[in-house]
Amino acid sequence: MSTPNTVIIIGGGLAGLSAAIEAHANGARVILLEKEARIGGNSIKASSGINTVEPLNNDTVELFEEDSIISGGGLSDPTLVHKLVTESQDAVKWLIEQSKDSLDLSLVSRCGGHRVGRTHRCKPGENGRPVPVGWAIIETLKKRLDGVEVKTGTRVLEILKNASGRVTGVRVITDGEEEEIDAEAVILASGGFGGQTGELQGDGKESLLHHYAPQLVNLATTNGPWANGDGVRLGLAAGAKLKDMDQVQIHPTGFIDPSNPSAPTKFLAPEALRAYGAILLDGEGHRFVDELGRRDEVSKAFFEHPNHPTPEGWMSKSLSAATDADKHTSASTATATDTATSASTSTYTSDSRSAVAYLVMPQQAVENFGEGTLGFYLQKGFFVKAAGTAGLAKLLAVSQEALEEELGQYDSHQDPEKTVFPCDLMPSKDILYWVALVTPCVHYTMGGLTIDSEARVLESSGKPITGLYAAGEVAAGVHGKNRLAGNSLLECVVYGRTAGRTAATSYLSLD
Ligand SMILES: Cc1cc2nc3c(=O)[nH]c(=O)nc-3n(C[C@H](O)[C@H](O)[C@H](O)COP(=O)(O)OP(=O)(O)OC[C@H]3O[C@@H](n4cnc5c(N)ncnc54)[C@H](O)[C@@H]3O)c2cc1C
Ligand SMILES: *[C@@H]1O[C@H](CO)[C@@H](O)[C@H](O)[C@H]1NC(C)=O
Ligand SMILES: *[C@@H]1O[C@H](CO)[C@@H](O)[C@H](O)[C@H]1NC(C)=O
User: Fold this and answer.
1) pLDDT at 294
2) What one-character-per-residue DSSP string does 140-154 give?
3) What is the pTM for the complete model shown?
4) Does 383 lie in the same domain as 482?
5) DSSP annotation of 37
6) Closest to 270 in 3D by CA, of 250, 246, 254, 247
7) CB 254 less than 6 A from any atom of ligand 1
């Protein structure tokens, strides 16, 4: 072996970084191409965590695998799920090793559709400041790229193949200049297509979302605009078979920003908020769904339930509620009053009003989740505080008596539909409540390129395309109809590492 294998990786999110580190560790020359100015992709936005079999909660491979398969609704590939779960502990161990033990993933929560807590995220730092999990993982891996050639601002336009169908490199564009780069293997780690809502994308082409799930184009998205489906188009042009393209995950809770309620991109109200005890209330102050049901079920309830809050009145009411709440307690860390002031200048559009609910967190849930972490959302103006059930009833413009009955009923744990009650809603009538308006958003695209358990991209015939690999959100098969919270970051590490290893080692063995 005189010259090493060259492996090109398209995309600098978690799947791409995992692949790059592993391909380099296996002796390849590695070139990582990222079209944006900085690496991180959607991975840097992840806030709920990464899953692993969690023995401390009596979790097992079988249980985790079953939860994932059930959530997939018959569409997931059991072989891919099996690999995801059996390699989960190793994946998290690897991340921590990469950080030289500085990455702390010790907080565990139980998210929707999971029968036990197995979603890991970071403890707040020593200064009490929150450490967002996606950011922390990307920062860790960025420091491990010694020896990897990283080119940002470079967009891949085409995957090149020779007449025998073997991948030979890519055609790229950097600052308007096109060039070809040769490689023995190419790994697509370019993410999904949930960032391009609307009918057309910037370049005038039909968005993949409009093509495959036209009913969703008027929703907002939690994704960055970089998630534009390039990887799906590149793979398709290279002969890949697509799978499950119409399976798009709607996250039930994106924050409505009172200062820009119809913004097409929304901050995610992480599922972990509900895991720690946030509830959802309709316009009349009633619960309408098991807050910890699967995402598809919770989103469906948003669309089907008739009594949405009418948010116009909410801002003026929230102003006085916030002021009352600040008088009520010194615990307030940020400027709820500023929030309400900026909010009162805005109006709601029909889009953002179509499926809205209140997200209500009792003080205990706020403390369990981490008040410091929530402070970020408070500063953004997403939360308003209400003092006691009286303040909450006033804020929601519902009768205090009916509200107390609703909360009391929850606290009696008698709801047959609900099995998990993270904390009491009304331990007393004068606790503090944090309230936000939330709405469903496009969040994750389950479909994409068909792969096998070696991360090789498959043609319609089922044959691998020689030299082409895919990992992360660009690939299909792991999640089926509905992705479980925390399974995507895990998929990026498990399949990214596999792709890197296979790409670096298989070329020579083929010859
Ligand atoms: C707000 C939010 C919160 C989330 N929270 C969680 C969570 O807590 N847990 C979890 O498991 N999942 C979570 N997810 C999902 C998860 O973050 C993503 O699915 C995952 O990070 C995708 O990683 P990736 O490496 O496949 O793609 P990305 O991280 O999106 O990276 C892909 C990169 O490829 C680049 N690229 C695309 N096309 C090209 C091209 N032609 N040439 C060059 N570069 C290109 C993009 O610019 C991008 O930087 C969340 C998603 C969002 C949006
Ligand atoms: C795990 O199982 C043991 C034995 O059944 C039980 O005592 C313990 O409480 C369980 N732990 C958790 C976290 O569920
Ligand atoms: C395609 O590339 C492979 C690997 O370099 C080589 O063995 C094969 O002969 C090439 N085919 C053609 C038609 O050039």
Assistant:
1) 85
2) HHHTT-TT-EEEESE
3) 0.90
4) no
5) S
6) 254
7) no
For 237-254, how does the pLDDT look when each residue is reduced to its tens digit (9 = 90+)? 999 999 999 999 999 999
CATH of the domain at 311: 3.90.700.10
468 alpha carbon to ligand 2 midpoint, in Å?
Answer: 45
Question: Does the C-beta of 166 come closer than 6 Å to ligand 3?
Answer: yes
Q: Which residue has the higher pLDDT, 200 or 81?
A: 81
Cα–Cα nearest to 173, from 208, 197, 203: 203
End-to-end CA distance of the chain: 11
Nearest CA to ligand 2 atom 4: 58
DSSP state of 175: T
Q: Which long-range contacts (CB under 8 A, 24 or more apart) does 335-338 make?
A: 335/379, 336/378, 336/383, 336/384, 336/385, 338/381
* Protein residue closest via CA to atom 14 of ligand 2: 57
Structural tokens at position 443: 């969040």
Spatial neighbors of 106 by CB under 8 A, at least 6 apart, are: 120, 122, 123
Region 471-484 average pLDDT: 97
Same domain flag for 291 and 162: no
Residue among 302, 287, 294, 301 at smallest CA distance from 412 = 287
Segment 484-504, tens digit of pLDDT:
999 999 999 999 999 999 999
344 is written with which tokens?
A: 């009162």
pLDDT at residue 257 is higher than 70: yes
Compute, in angstroms, the gap from residue 510 CA to the centroid of ligand 3: 12
Q: How far does the centroid of ligand 3 lie from the alpha carbon of residue 507, in Å? A: 12
380/87 Cα distance (integer angstroms): 38
What range does the domain containing 118 cover?
6-192+446-509
Q: Do 429 and 453 lie in a common domain? A: no
DSSP 381-412: T--EEEEHHHHHHHHHTS-HHHHHHHHHHHHT
Mean pLDDT of 447-473: 97
| Distance, CA of 302 to CA of 307 (rounded, Å) | 9
Q: Measure the CA–CA gap between 37 and 490, rounded to whole angstroms.
A: 25
Residues in the chain: 511
> What is the average per-residue pLDDT within 337-351?
29
Residues near ligand 2 (Cβ within 6 A): 57-58
Give yes or no: residues 466 and 421 share one domain: no
Residue from 294, 256, 257 nearest 274 by CA: 294
Mean residue pLDDT of the chain comes to 90
